[in-house]
Amino acid sequence: MINIDFSLAIGLYMFIFLIVVFLLWLGIRKDKERVLTIDPKYIWFCNICTHTYINTKEEKFSVCPRCGSYNKK
Question: Which of 20, 28, 36, 47 has its CA at a distance of 20 to 30 angstroms from the CA of residue 59?
């Protein structure tokens, strides 16, 4: 049987626990580094106030959120 001091056992337990938490943190962090892309058909440009905005509706006309004017794609 291996004799081990109580404080050494607690230290080893804490070290292993911290390593596991660190590895889980690295794994979760990789999932969050996604690249977001926007389809160019959803990007609208207002001809009146020159505001660029996103509208995900599949319509021919869109209303500018800044000035309220109608824009045609």
Answer: 36
End-to-end CA distance of the chain: 78
Could you tell me how many residues make up the chain?
73
- Is the model's pLDDT at 67 over the cut of 70? yes
- Count other C-beta atoms under 10 Å from residue 42's C-beta: 13
3-state secondary structure of 16: helix
Q: Are 55 and 71 in contact (CB under 8 A)?
A: no
Assess whether pLDDT exceeds 80 at residue 61.
yes
Pick the range with the lowest mean pLDDT from 3-7, 10-14, 15-19, 27-31.
27-31
Which tokens sit at 13?
């337990």
Instruction: Give the count of beta carbons closer than 10 Å to the beta carbon of residue 46.
Output: 19
